[in-house]
Amino acid sequence: MNLFEFCYGLIHWLVDLVNNIWYRLGDWLPWWFGDFFTAVGDFASSHGHIAVMAILLEVLIIIIIALINVLNFIWLDRKYMGRMFDFYGPYYVGYRIGGWLQNLADGMKLFVKEIITPAKADRIGFFLAPVIFVGSSFLALATIPLGRQFYVGTNADPLSTGVEASALIAFAFFAIAPFSILIAGWSSNNKYTLIGGMRSAAQMMSYEIPMLLTVASVFLLAGSFGFMDIVDAQHDIWFGIPLFLGLVTFIVCLAAEVEIQPFDLPEAEAELVEGWTTEYCGMRFGLFMMTSYLRGYIGGALATALFLGGWHGPGFLPDPIWFLIKAYIVFVLIEWARWSLPRVRVDQILNIGWKRLLPMAILNLMVAVLLKTAGWF
Amino acid sequence: MAQKKKAKGSGGLIIRPMMRSGKQVVSSLFKGMPNTILYPYQILDLPPTYRGKHTLDFKRCIGCGNCVEICPNDCMWLEKLDDPELGKIERPGVDMGRCLFCGFCVEVCPTVALHHTVEFELADYRRDKLKYGPKDLRDDKFADKVKEERTKQRLPVLDMAKCTSCEKCAGACPEMVIAMMPVENVGRSKPEINLSKCTGCEKCVIACPEKALEMKDIYESYFEMPEPKFALKNCTGCGACARACPADAIYMMEMPGTEKVLKDGKKGKPKKRAVFVLEKCVGCGRCFRACKFEAIEMSGVRK
Amino acid sequence: MAEMWINMGPQHPMTHGLWNLRVKVDGETIVDAQPEVGYLHRGIEKLVEGRTYTQVIPITDRLCYGSSLTWSHLYCLTAENLMGVEVPPRAEYIRVAAIEMQRIASHLMWLAAYAADLGLMLGFIYTMRDREIFIDLLQAMSGSRLTYNYPRIGGVAHDVPPNFERDALRACSYMEKKLKEYEDLFDGSKVFMMRNVDVGLLKKEDAMNLGVTGPPLRASGVKYDLRKDMPYSIYPELNFEPATHPDGDCYARYKVRMDEMYTSCKLIRQAVQKMPKGKWRVVAPRNAPVGTGLGRVEDPRGEGVMYLVGDGSDRPYRLKIRSPIFVTVSAAPKMLIGYKLADVVAIMGGLDMCIGETDR
C-alpha cells in the first residue's frame, strides 16, 4: 500500500469521525449556523481537500522520521566517537537505553538559553540565515523516497514515482546552503565569522562540481532524473560497484559539503572560535547543529539511493529499514574518517577539490559512458 | 600547493590512522572496558603518599607551632583548647581554602603528629566552613596505622629538674658521648649528650640514680631549625620562657648566692636563671617571643 | 581584501595560556606578526624574596605547571650551588628518573594540545591517556599529580615507593610501544604531513642568532643539548644521544620531540637500574652564605637558568629566572611571515608555549 493511500485512509477516517459530531451539532443549532456547519463539513470531506491534508500528513511523517534519525545519528556519533577515544559515550541520561536521552537533554538546554543579537548585526540577514538553511535542507529531504511505496506524492497517476526529476531537485535544494552560510557569516558583524563564511562558501561551491559530475554519471546509467527509476535500475547490481570511483568521490564531496572533519575549517575551533556560527545563541545555534547532522543524513540517503541500491535487499525486512541501514553504514564510514584525521587547511581543501576530485569525477563519467555504450545498462 | 617531495612516512594516506582508531573501537567494545573511571560511582585508587586532608594526633602533638611557621602560604594557626584529658593545650588548625597541600607541615613536625590522608573531597558551599579547626582534624589513631618513613631512634632524653650533677651518666657511657658542662652562676654541671653519636645502649639510663634520663623515640629532623642563644645578663628569672617552651627544653635553676636579705633579716628566695637542654629544642621560637627582656636571641624567627 | 591586524588572544581557544599574538594579514597570507606576553605575570621573583629557602620550592613548581619538576629541580641545584651542599648519589639517580618521566609527560601534553589544535581529537585523548601512566608513577613518588614539591635542597623529599623499578620499567616498555602507534596516527596520515611539512621554516643561523634553545634549535640542525654539552647531576654517567633533525619546519620539531621521548625512556631505564642504595636526603644549612649560585638545566622547552643571590640570612636576596619560551617566542615573526593564517596554529603549537614560565 502506498504511503499516500495510507494517509488518505487515515485522514478520511478522522474526518468522518469528526463529522459525526459536527453534523449533529449543525442539526441542533438554529437557522443560519446549521447551514454553516453543514457547508464546512462538506467542504472538509471532499476528495481534494482530504488529499491536501493527506499530503501534509505524509510530509509530517517524513519530517518526524528524519528528526528521529537525526537524534539517532547524534547518539551514534557520540557513542562511536566515545569507543574510538577509549571512553564511554553518553552514559547516565537514559541509563538503561545507552544514554539516548542525552540529546534531548542537550536540546532542552539550548532552548532555555538567552537569545542575544549583536547590536550592529544586520537584523534581517541574521534572522533569515537559519531559516534558509533549515528550510532548504528539509525541502531536499522531502524528495527522497524511502521505499517503493514510501514517498511524498499523490496517486493521480498510478505509475507515478513521486516528484518528477526528484534527484535533480534534491541536489538543487541541497546546494542553497552556501548562500545561507554566507549571509550568516557576513551579517554577524565579526571579522572571524566573515572569514569563516567566506571559507565555507568557497569550500562548498568548489565541491559541488565533482559531486554533480558523479551524479551525472549515475543519471547516465539509469536514464532518468528521478529516484524511483534510479533505484529500480539497480535491481541487478548496485551502481557503486562499477562506479566505485564515483562512490568514493561522492562520499568525500559529501563530507566537504556537510563540513565534517577533516574538512571543517570554517568551524575550526582552534582559530576562529566557532566560525560562522559564533554569534548565534540558544536554539538558533541548535538549529545549525541539527541541520548539520540532517544534511549528513540527507547525504547518506542520497548516497544510498544513487550508489548502494536504495532499498533493495533480502526480503525479510521492509524497504525503508534497508534504506536506513545503508544510510547508517555510510554515516559510520564518514564518522570513522572524521575522527581519525586532522583538519585540512583551507587552500589544501580547495586543492583537493579542484585538482584531485574533479579528474576522478571525469574519469568516473567516462567509465559510465563506456558502460552505457556497451549496452550493459 | 602540491608537495614537491614525498613526505616522510606518509605511506598510509588515510588508511593507517583509520586502522588505528578502528583497532581501538574493537578493543574498547570487545576486549575490556574503556579507560574511564566512572567517578563518583567507582572509587579512585590513590597511593598512600597522596597529600590530601590533614589529620592530627593530639597526644603526639606538643603544640610547638613549627608547622605554622613553615607554611608557605600562612594557612595554619594555633588554637588554645581545653581538653578533658590533656588539659590546656594549643593545637594547630588548617585553612583548606588557602592550603596548597605541599606537605611541609607534615615533614617539619618533630613528633610526627600531622599526617596527610587520601581524602580530597573537601569542597563546601561557604568559605568559612573550609577552615578546619584542630577538633575537625583530630584522629588519634591514624599515626599507628600508617607506615612511617622517617627513621626514628631510641635516644636518651634529659629531665634537668631531677638531675643532681652526679656525673654517673658520663662515666657509664662507653662511647664518651656525654660531656658534663658547667652552668654559669649555678654551680652545677649539666650533662650534654651528642645525639648524633649515641648508639642507644641505655647504659646511662641505668646508671642514673634519680631516673633523670629516659629513652624516647626521637624522629629524624630534615630541616635545620634555628637555635636559641642566651644572654645571661638580661635574664631576670621570670620563667616565661620555661612556661612557653612546648618541648620542656628550658629549666629554671636557682643561682646560689643571690638571695636578697629582707627587711626582717631573713633571707629571701634566690634568683633563678634559665638553662637550656638544647637536644630537646625543636626550634619553634616561642621562648624568643615570650622573653620580654631580650635575654634570648634567635635569628630567622619573627617576633 | 585590505590588510588588517587580527588579534589572536588573549582569550582564545588556541593559545595555551594567556598571551596575545597580533598578525597582519593580507587576505590569508601573514605579512607581519607581534607577540605580546605579560598577561600572566604573577611576580614570582618578588614573592620569593620574603620566604625561606625551603618555602620557595612550591613557588618554583608553579612557574611552568606543565613541567614543574624541572623548575623545582633547577632551584634546588642553584641553592645547592650557593650553599655548597653535596647531594647523595641515590638522590641524584632518583632526581634524574623523575625528571625524565616529567619530560615524557610534558612532551605528551604538548602532543595532546598540538593534535587538538590541528583538529585531531583522537591524538589528544590517546596522549592524555598515556600521560596518566607517568603521572601516576610520579604521584606514587611524591604525592601529587601536577605540582610535585618533590626535590629538596640536599636531595629528594621521600624515597621511591616499593616496586618502583618494576613499575618504571613497565611504563617505559608501554611508552615505546605506544610511540610506534603514534607513528601510525601522525606520521602515517597524509593530512598531518600536509599540515606540517615545509611550514614554519626556521633557518639554522636565525635560530642561533635569536637565542632559541631546546627542541626548536635541535630541529634546525644544531646539535646542542645541555645534558650533553654542560652536564649536571649524573648525566655524564648515562649514555644517550640528543635528537636532531636537519630541516627547520614543523615536522622537524615534531620529530625531535618524539625522538626525545625515546631517549627519555632509555634514560629512565638506565637510571632506575643503576640506582645505588643509601640516603636520599641530607640536611641543608638554614642560612646561606653571602654569595651567588647559578644553575642551568635542559627544560623540555629549552634552556632554563636560575641565579640566586644570598646575603647570609635564611631568605634569598634575589632570584633571577631565565625562561626559554620568553626568548623563543621572539623568533615567532621569522617563522610566521609568508605563511597562511591557518598555519599559525601549527607553527606556534610547535614551539610548546607555556606562559607560566614566560611571564613568571
Protein described:
The complex is a heterotrimer of chains A (377), B (303) and C (360). Chain A has 377 residues and is mainly alpha-helical. Helices cover 69% and strands 0% of the residues of chain A. In chain A, helix 4 (102-111) packs across helix 12. The longest helix of chain A is centred in the first third of the chain and has 38 residues, at 47-84. Chain A is globular. The mean pLDDT of chain A is 83. Chain B has 303 residues and is an alpha+beta fold. Chain B has three domains: 54-143, Alpha-Beta Plaits (2-Layer Sandwich), CATH 3.30.70.3270; 150-221, Alpha-Beta Plaits; 223-303, Alpha-Beta Plaits (2-Layer Sandwich), CATH 3.30.70.3270. Chain B has helices spanning 15-29, 66-70, 104-108, 134-137, 142-145, 168-172, 203-207, 240-244, 286-290; strands spanning 54-56, 76-83, 87-95, 114-116, 131-132, 152-158, 178-182, 189-193, 213-219, 229-230, 250-254, 272-276, 296-297. Chain C has 360 residues and is an alpha+beta fold. Chain C has a single domain (54-330), classed as Cytochrome-c3 Hydrogenase, chain B. Chain C has 15 helices and eight strands. Chain C has helices spanning 44-47, 57-61, 68-83, 89-118, 121-142, 164-187, 190-196, 204-210, 215-219, 226-229, 250-273, 324-328, 332-336, 344-350, 355-359; strands spanning 3-8, 20-26, 29-36, 151-152, 155-156, 290-299, 302-311, 318-322. Chain C has a three-stranded antiparallel sheet with strand order 1-2-3. In chain C, strands 6-7-8 form a three-stranded antiparallel sheet. In chain C, strand 6 and strand 7 form a beta hairpin. Classes of the chains: A mainly alpha (377), B alpha+beta (303), C alpha+beta (360). Chains in contact: A-B, A-C, B-C. Chain A binds chain C through residues 84-87, 191, 195, 261-262, 264-265, 268-271, 273, 339-348, and chain C through 4, 6, 8, 12-14, 28, 115-123, 125-126, 129, 185, 189, 191-192, 194-195, 340-345.
